[in-house]
Design brief:
By secondary structure, the protein is of the alpha+beta class. It contains seven helices and 24 strands. Strand 7 and strand 8 form a beta hairpin.
Length: 385
């Protein structure tokens, strides 16, 4: 293999693929990036691939010159360090013969010992999954819609919870509706959008690591993203043609049954409060300054007649805080309720609309935060006694 690459594009690709490469593995090939230079002279490209056996990513680079097609398997950490360090070079030459690779700049020559590219595990292509006998659904959306769904749900997913099924985000496709739901048992975020066409119904749990990588790949909001889903795997291809995608991410799915989330979303709230998003976010952040591990809650005291809210917090060894907020609208009786301030600020960070609605029932019932018609967030109260 002999190729000349634009260094900036190569570094971007190596950084992306390094995100899925195993940092430690009894199979050293999984700590490597596979480089494959295409043989099509009319459309020269270099494909970079990495995997940790559960998650796999292939990124295609078009700004290359291919002198000899071929492939190489190079340790990811050293490849990344070398390409990053050669920051004065506009292009880099990469040559490989067997298990040895050479990376050359104007005044530098690095020789790396890797592995035979034949030892790299096979990565399922989009087409092989979409056309396979176990394919459940195939659908398409845009990069902007997908990243919006992920951004407004992923933050609420559990981290290393023993209930394995909530260590990811539920993806649901029904008709034209595409929905994502995440929960950690104390809060739940649901975001909904619509696709252009009706398609196969699908329901799967996508791992958080895969979703974080999809956010990094989602550069252009209008770019097409194709999805193919089986019982155990999902593949995401970025670009108009999934067979020749700019980037293809394949992931194992989380096993287990996601909780019946529709039962968790309150339906009978009789207190409705309208806020300016930024004013509420500022008040919660300031009230949270005087909380600690023992008193992690912030008290919200709503006054309907005065259309006012007082947020208060106290930590015995530090002191207490009181923040007054005027409400844009209030319907219902007065109520006092406590929430973990981090849970509120996490949701407010991902909301684009300037107006936020919180619906409540009682001090011991969950709160419901809404933004527009596509985002719903349920948060359990905390005991402030």
């Amino acid at each position: 293999m002999k190729v000349n690459c634009e260094r900036a594009a190569l570094l971007e690709g190596v950084n992306l693929v390094s995100g899925v490469v195993a940092t430690r593995s009894p199979r050293p090939q999984l700590t490597c990036i596979r480089l494959e230079a295409g043989a099509d002279a009319s459309a020269p490209e270099l494909a970079l691939s990495g995997t940790d056996a559960d998650l796999a990513l292939t990124v295609r680079l078009g700004r290359v010159e291919v002198s000899e097609p071929g492939s190489a398997l190079i340790p990811a950490d050293k490849l990344r360090q070398i390409v990053s360090a050669e920051d004065n070079e506009p292009t880099l030459a990469i040559e490989a013969d067997g298990e040895t690779a050479h990376i050359k700049g104007a005044d530098a020559h690095f020789q790396l010992h890797g592995f035979s590219s034949d030892e790299f595990p096979a990565i399922p292509s989009f087409q092989s999954v979409a056309d396979g006998s176990d394919a459940k659904a195939s659908l398409a959306t845009t990069s902007g819609m997908l990243s919006g769904l992920i951004t407004r749900t992923l933050f609420a997913a559990a981290r290393e919870n023993s209930r394995y099924a909530i260590n990811g985000v539920l993806l649901v496709r029904e008709g034209k509706k595409l929905e994502m739901v995440a929960t950690d048992g104390r809060r739940l975020a649901k975001c909904t959008t619509s696709t252009d066409e009706k398609g196969d119904s699908a329901r799967c749990i996508v791992p958080s690591k895969a979703l974080s990588m999809l956010l990094k790949l989602a550069d252009e909001p209008e770019e097409a993203v194709h999805m193919a889903i089986t019982d155990s795997r999902a593949v995401f291809a970025f670009g108009d043609n999934p067979a020749d995608a700019r980037a293809t991410l394949s992931t194992s799915l989380v096993e287990g049954t996601f909780p019946p989330y529709e039962d968790v979303i309150p339906k009978d709230q009789d207190i409705r409060v309208t806020f300016d998003r930024d004013i509420l976010a500022s008040a919660v952040r300031r009230a949270a300054l005087l909380t600690n591990e023992e008193s992690r809650g912030v008290r919200l005291a709503f006054n309907g007649e005065g259309k006012a809210l007082e947020l208060s917090s106290r930590a015995p060894e530090m002191g207490e805080a009181r923040i007054a907020v005027e409400l844009a609208g209030y319907e219902g009786d007065d109520v006092e309720i406590g929430f973990n301030p981090t849970f509120l600020t996490d949701a407010l960070k991902v909301i684009d609309e300037p107006e936020v609605i919180i619906e409540l029932k009682a001090s011991n019932k969950p709160g419901l935060l809404k933004s527009g018609s596509d985002f719903v967030y349920v948060v359990m109260p905390v005991n402030l006694a």
